[in-house]
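Meet our chain:
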Amino acid sequence: MLEVAIWSYGVAAVAFLIFALYIFLAWRGALPGGALFAAVAISGLWAGLSALEARGAWPFSGALAVALDLLRGAAWYVFLIVLSRPLWGRWMRWPAYVALAVVVAQVLALALESAGVTGGLPIAPAIGAWLMHAIVGLMLVEQLYRGMPAVSRWGLKPLCLALAAGYIFELYLFADALLFSRIDADVWAARGIAHALLIPLIAIAGTRSPSWTLRMSVSREIVFHSTALAGAGLYLLVIAAAAYYVRFFGGDWGRALQMALLFAGLVVLGALLFSGAVRARLRVFISKHLFPYRYDYRSEWLRFTQALSTVDRSLDLGQSVIKALSDLVESPGGSLWLADAYGKCRPHSRFNQPPIDVVEALDSPLCGFLARSGWVINLEEYRVQPGRYQGLVLPDWLSRLDEAWLVIPLQTAERLIGFVVLGSPRTPFDIDWEVLDLLKTAQRQAAGYLDRMLAAEALLEARKFDSFNRMSAFVVHDLKNLVAQLSLMLKNAQRHRDNPEFQQDMLDTVANVEARMRGLMTQLQEKRSIDPPRAVDLPALLRAVCESKRGQSPAIELVCAAAGPVEVSAHPQRLERIIGHVVQNALDATAQDGKVVLSLAAGKDGRANVVVEDDGCGMSPEFVRERLSRPFQTTKSSGMGIGVYETRQYLEEIGGALHYDSEVGRGTRVSIELPRIRREDGQSTAMGI
C-alpha cells in the first residue's frame, strides 16, 4: 500500500496547495478567510510530508508529518471557532476551551510516546488523543450548524458536511486502531485523498458566504462536469463490482459474462452521458441544491446573446431564437409565429417540432392578452387554474397541442411582433418568478433582433420595388421615344403613302420599333440588361443614331475626326439609347432651321469624346447645376425628366463621364466621355477603366 499512499497524499498535497493559493488571491483581509487559508495551507504541507514519509525519501519527514498533522487539526479548530464565535453568549465559550484541551492532550500524548513512558497505559496515548480530536471536531461542527439561524444554514451546509465527513473518517480510522491496537494501512493510505475530496464542498461554501470576505466563485459548468464525472466514476465502480462478482461466482462463464457486463455498462454510460434529458435533470438538480439562484446570469446572458448575434449556419434567426429560449428552460424546441403586414401571426420557424400551419390574428384573444399583459403563459398552470389568466380563452389549435408548454410573447417597446410556443421540458422544471423574469427579459432582446430582421426584409423588398420602378421608368421613357417615331411616321404617311421608298422605309421603321419594344419588355421581365457589355464600334453606332433620327428636322450633321477605328466597352443597345436621348433632346430644343452636330474625337487619357452641339434655346446655369441631373426634372412639356439621369448613371457605371455647357438663347454643348479600347498585337485593352 505504500505506492497507493504516495499517490494519495501526493494528489492531496497538490490539491490543497492549489486551493490555498486560490484562497490567498481571493482573500480580502477578513479573519475567517485568513483562518481558512492557514488551515488549507497547513493541510497541503501535511499531505506533502506524509507522501515523503510513505516514500521514505527524508529521514525527518515522519516526525514533521505528525507535527503538521497536529497543527492541521488545530488550524481547523481555529477556523470553526472563528466562525462560531458570533453565535456564543458571554458564558458559552466552552467549545473553545475543550478544543484547546484536546490539542494540549495531543501534544502530551506525542511527548509521552516519544519519551517511551506509555507501557503502563491501557491504550496508546496518541490514538486516544486523535480519537478525541475527531469527536471534538464533530462537536464543533454540530454547534456551528445548530447555532446558525435556519435561514443562514444554506450557506454553511457544504462546509459542515465536508468537515463532518472528514472527522467521521478520522473517527473510523482511530477507533479501528484503538480496537485492534494498530493503524489500518489501507485506511491510512486513503486518508490523504479522502480529505482532498472535501475541497469542492468547502469551495462551494466559500462562494455562498460573503461574510468570509472571499471573492470566490465556482463555475456552474465546472460543478456540472465534475458532478457528471463523479457520477460516471461511481457508476463504473458499481459495474466493476458487479462484474467481479459475476466472474467470481460464474464458473467457466465468469470471465465472458464479466466482459459482457462491462461492455454493456460502458454502452449504457455513454447513452446516459449524451442524453439531453439526463443532462437536463443533472443541471436542474445542481442549480436547485448547490447555488442560491437557478441561473448564472452572466454566462446565460452571454450565451443567449451569442446565439442571437452569430446565427448557426444550419439555423436561421427564427430557429436560433427558439433554441436560445428553449435552452433557458430545458425545452427540446418549439415554434415561432411572426406578425405580417396584414395583421396576421403566421408560422415562421420551428425547431425540433412538427410543422403547424395555423394563422393567429393580432386582434385575437390570445394575441390581445399577450400584447396587454406581456405574460408568459404556462399551459400546465392554465389547465389547472385558468382563472389566474384573467379570463383568457385559448384557441382550439393551441389546446390540442399535447406537447405545448409555454407561450412566450415577443414584444418590442411599441408592439407585439409574434410569440413562441415551447415544447414540454426534458425534465420536470418549476416555473417560478426567477424563470419568468429571465424569459421576459430574454424575449425583449429576441424581439429586438427579430424586429430588425423584419425591417431589413421590408427594406430589401422596398429596394427591389424601387429598382423595378426605376427600370420601368427608363423603359417607359424609351417607349415614349419609340411612340414619337411612330407618330412622326404616321404624320408623314398622309403625304407619302403612294411613295414606294417611303413604304419600304415605313416597314423598316415599324420592324425596328417592334424589335426595340420586344427587347424592352424582355429587359423589364428579367430585371436586367438584355445585352452583355462588349466591344462597340463607336462610329457605326453614331451613324445608327443619326439614321434613326433621319425623318426629323433639323438634319443631324455627323463629324468623325478620329483616325482609325474607335471601340469602347459598353452595352450596345443601352449606349445607343442614351446617345439617342441626348441627340433627341438637342433636336427638341432646336428650331427646324437650326443646327445639330454630332461629332466624335479623341479625348484625353485614351478616351473617346462624343459631342452633341445645338444652337437651340439652351438652359440656365442654375438649371444645369441644380436640376438637370435629378430625376423627373425637365423643361419640356411632354418630357419625363429621366433621360439625363439615366445617361449620367450609366456612364458612371462603365467608367465614362457626362458634361453640359449651356446658355439660354445660345444653345447647348454636351460632351460624353467613354473609355476606349486600344487593340495592340491582336489583343484588346480597355483604357481608363
About this structure: Confidence is low (pLDDT under 50) at residues 118-123, 681-689. The longest strand covers residues 667-680.
